[in-house]
Design brief:
heterodimer, A: 641 residues, alpha/beta, five-stranded parallel β-sheet, four-stranded mixed β-sheet, 19 helices, B: Ubiquitin-like (UB roll), Fumarate Reductase Iron-sulfur Protein, Chain B, domain 2, 2 domains, two-stranded antiparallel sheet
Amino acid sequence: MTDEIKRYSYDVVVIGAGGSGLRAAIEARLQGKKTAVISKSLFGKAHTVMAEGGCAAAMGNRNPRDNWQVHFRDTMRGGKFLNNWRMAELHAKEAPDRVWELEAWGAVFDRTADGKISQRNFGGHEYPRLAHVGDRTGLEIIRTLQQKVVALQQEDAVEFGDPEAMIKVFAETTITELLSGDGRIAGAFGYFRDTGQFVLFETPAVVLATGGIGKTYKVTSNSWEYTGDGHALALRAGAKLLNMEFVQLHPTGMVWPPSVRGLLVTESVRGDGGVLRNSEGKRFMFSYVPDVFRPQYAETEEEADRWYADPDNNRRPPELLPRDEVARSINSEVKAGRGSPHGGVFLDVSTRLPADEIMRRLPSMHHQFKELADVDITKEPMEVGPTCHYVMGGVEVDPDTGAASVPGLFAVGEVSGGMHGSNRLGGNSLSDLLVFGRRAGLGAAEYVTALASRPAVPEAAVSAAAAVAAEPLERPEGENPYAIQGELQVIMHDLVGLIRRESEMKTALVELDKLRARAAQVSVGGGRAYNPGWHVALDLRNMMVVAECVAQAALERQESRGGHTRDDYPGMSPEWRKVNLVCSLEPSGPSGAVSLRRQPTPAMRTDLLELFDLAELKKYMTDEELAGLPGATETSAEGTH
Amino acid sequence: MGYKAALKIWRGDAGAGQLADYDVEVNEGEVVLDVLHRLQATQATDLAIRWNCKAGKCGSCSMEINGRPRLACMTRMSVFSPEETLTITPMRTFPVIRDLVTDVSFNYAKAREIPSFTPPPEVKPGEFRMRQEDVNRSQEFRKCIECFLCQNTCHVIRDHAENEGAFAGPRFLMRVAELEMHPADIADRREIAQDDFGLGYCNITKCCTEVCPEHIKITDNALIPMKERVVGRKYDPLVWLGSRITRRGAKDTPAVPGGR
């Protein structure tokens, strides 16, 4: 029975059932397309549930001065101006509508005193901007989208007599290969987890919404699903990955006990008043404010503390610098011997807020530390340190439609690249999922509508995909896939981690090369039905190629910017800001050979450039670029905008 | 610090299975899921476990540990003594797929029967105004991570599979309560809560509340208040008379057609 390949036909297939995948699928279904959602886990369990702090949208509910321009500016600053400006613009403009839409679909956000959606402070955001539900905002968003899918299915049950007539969720199903015909997407091949049976989805449009690559690192806040599947599927289908060197280390992961090392501690702790201290009790972040951010951040503890009550007349505490800055600062403190007993620093909210307020604002954090580390955060500080959290790099897409370079392929959310530049601001991920989820769903629907004919799936490609997927089970002898995965995580953590240097990355590439040969020869025992060893073996193939991209791009970029810090090139270079690094697979070369090339970044529209002071732009751009700008010839550009 | 734990783990599929014995290393600070992962990586690569976030936020790794329904990722090994043999079995109420993984599709079918959030048609997105104190109750229920431990525990279906058609289980009766208490919802699900989702089967033994890893007061805050509302709607003679004479008042929302 399992030898038979189950076949389905859909207009749009969305791979991934987190926030971006569900939002894309909802849109495709609203556009009248027959839509499948492929979920690696059960429906409603995707990684989006891990998002805690909130969803950034300039609704201006807490501070009426907030608007899309301010949000755009913050996003570009956070990404160190490497963001695709068009994506940052669309994101800032459309995020409020996407949040309000969720409320109309049943989301229950925390409220302001006048009954609107409450918004909280977060790193890098000038005003309180994050719509939130305590510290479980991601759960609220995924549940709301899940329930919207159900609501649509209920409508379809009335209209067609079948709730799954127009939108169906395939839970615990993994796609292992995209199939093309005539150079266009024609289908997606994979397996059902419960039986191990192979499945083919014939479809002209695939939306990748598979999330990130965190499982290629040893210490990560990411779940088992984050094996870079979509990144690898896109590469193998002929699409390109953008700026894979930018990997965000969230500054605050748990460091103890060892089994939960890396588990996320929400940035809301700092947004709501928590401070970072070293072993000497010093609030060390004041010593680490970089020049580009100096005007916006407080210089004394007194000013920083006044900011919570009076943000209009005081500058922000440096604990709320963008994540890359805070992660590096913590790393420096630990290296200098001023760390906490288990190799982190102290994050303290217990001396900053009353216990009942902590319980109200940070219930999940209280629960997490109490249950897993025996720490009561209302009474004592937490120990925290950097953890691999998010990849800014991803599939290169058209900003307006999410279309990748391969016709019929779309990407959205963490698997797509460009939106966040070299560093993502907290809260900008949930809004990214919603804004571009809708746009990719629309883009895919429009693409399908415009098709004159649908490409056919070549049968040879189906049998080839089936053969590759079955290999680890059929190979009589070979290494244990769990062991190889463990080695890969150590290589990436040790040699392509937070602080990078040329010699180590060269070593990493050599090691990855050796490991790739071994990974291709793993063998697993057991049968096809719900066999995790087999699943790891198949995921490993994706992790290997993604790791190669990260290492190659990191070696190439000779500067430090956002989620890419070079010990040997510590400065940020305006010349490098003009460069995107693009990975693709060599079609003629040995299988898995990644090729890397440089590509110029798109020039920002003038009206958007004018949102910044020239003095600020000077920190990021070359003299040549600045010379072309209006006002650049004036002797002093300070305060012109 | 480390020691070897003796585990008895249920291995098998829908056809048959039995407890298998393993000795697995345990280190300081670990949870049951860590130990199962070590077993998987070193001795039993094909051991089927469902898990995801390993942080108590996704509700995937529900199982029964020494007979108690729990999340494996939130159960610390330190609650057991090193000499104790741990018996780990799949959730009993749902059909086994393989080893510790069960078929929980029952729950997704029930979710689809409940009439969805129904705001007043004239309120546009962005126009909702709700006070915090009015959304607190729905928010408590929306903390649910859908681990289905309450569904697994409730004796109405755990011990009586024949009730599965008539009873939605605590998780979904709580979903009805959540929508009924949502300040912007205008549907009325009281009648169907009783007739279609089997609220009357619940005899408030609070087992669901006891196993909830999110510590939601399912019985006290959702089920009992729903029972009171249903009584007011269905059995108050004045309400009944009023509805006969005037034909006024909110209409009952019917169950979703095609849901079953």
